[in-house]
Design brief:
This protein has about 350 residues and is mainly β. Helix content is about 5%, strand content about 45%. It folds into two domains: about 10-115, Sandwich (Jelly Rolls), CATH 2.60.120; about 120-320, Galactose-binding lectin (Jelly Rolls), CATH 2.60.120.430. The radius of gyration is 22 Å and the shape is elongated.
Length: about 350
């Protein structure tokens, strides 16, 4: 079916993508042949519209693969722009099935992407936050992207990302912009092959940053932090990926700062090799510690004789999706646990 919604021109980079949709009135699925096992993005695009007797905003449904639940009791009411749900999954089968199960009269989807990505996009190790210790097995988890933010307050569109991701500007998340300043550079980004590549984050992410404001330098004894606040669902486990690249130092070893997640200092006296290569750090926030309002902060080091500065280039927040598949057949609840 097709939409005639003229508002799409202003609400999306690709308005034509959301002017058509496929609807189902019963349990249905798409099947994709997987050419190479490994990590893939699954992106589901949604924008409800009215067509004849169908009002897609009234749809309520589940979406799953043959292994994991992607969406449960999903609805799209009162939205003004398209919604994209993105998942990073490790596919170890020759076929990927994406199931759509209605809990109302219908289920719909505007577009589906299945994109092969390098396995180096996600490593197996991370650090838990409370307490700080090693976390293993991350590469086997399915991750749902919740936020992908480019510091420096510059939006990155899919056309400027090798994996067609969108990075939103950070200004709307900053609690007090008086404590922040935005920086950028035209210098070439030299990646570390096999560790940090353009697929990790595009050059524009590492070429922009939000830096601590001059208040820390001009106000005697000042220790102002930059704090970004994000809305989350409580009771879920999240992966936080911090992107760093020093674009503010003139010479080496000038930058030393602290990084906080909520009340916890996760990086203390954190230094970046000046003018070197970009890097990222992954942390796991447990379900017990996740709250509906998550504060991420950077602040000056408490070490004496260190300039009060700090930067952040990018931040990704992902939900660890580990639910088994649940499908309703009539009134019977069926748990599908597919074993490789």
């Amino acid at each position: 079916m097709a939409s005639t919604d003229s508002n799409l021109e202003a609400s999306s980079e690709y308005p034509s993508l959301y002017q058509t949709a496929r609807i189902f009135t019963s349990l249905s699925y798409y099947s994709f042949q997987i050419q190479q096992h490994g990590h893939h993005f699954i992106r589901l695009h949604f924008y409800p519209f009215v067509y004849q007797n169908y009002d897609l905003a009234n749809a309520k449904f589940n979406v799953s693969t043959q292994d994991i639940m992607l969406l449960t009791d999903f609805q799209l009411k009162n939205i003004s722009s398209p919604i994209v749900k993105e998942y990073l999954v490790n596919i170890t089968k020759d076929k990927l099935n994406v199931f759509f199960q209605p809990f109302s009269d219908l289920v719909f989807v505007n577009a589906i992407e299945v994109v092969s990505v390098p396995d180096t996009l996600i490593f197996d190790l991370a650090s838990t936050i409370n307490p700080i210790r090693q976390y293993t097995g991350l590469s086997t988890q399915a991750l749902e992207n919740v936020y992908r933010v480019n510091m420096g307050n510059l939006k990155v569109t899919p056309d400027n990302d090798t994996l067609w991701r969108t990075w939103v500007p950070d200004a709307s998340f900053i609690q007090n912009q008086n404590f922040a300043r935005w920086k950028s550079t035209i210098a070439t980004i030299n990646y570390m092959e096999g560790l940090v590549t353009a697929e990790t984050a595009p050059p524009i992410v590492y070429s922009t940053a939000t830096e601590l404001a001059l208040l820390n330098e001009t106000t005697k004894g000042a220790r102002f932090n930059i704090t970004w606040q994000f809305d989350l669902q409580e009771g879920y486990t999240y992966m936080l990926r911090f992107h760093f690249f020093d674009i503010v130092s003139i010479s080496a070893n000038q930058l030393l700062f602290d990084v906080y997640v909520g009340p916890w200092a996760v990086l203390t006296d954190f230094g970046l090799p000046s003018l070197a290569r970009p890097q990222f750090t992954d942390f796991i926030l447990s379900a017990e510690d996740s709250t509906c309002k998550l504060n991420i902060s950077i602040g000056p080091s408490k070490t004496a004789d260190v300039p009060p500065d700090g930067i952040l280039n990018g931040l990704e927040i992902s939900n660890l999706t580990i639910s088994p598949v649940v499908i309703m057949l009539g009134q019977e609840l069926v748990w599908l646990l597919f074993l490789a």
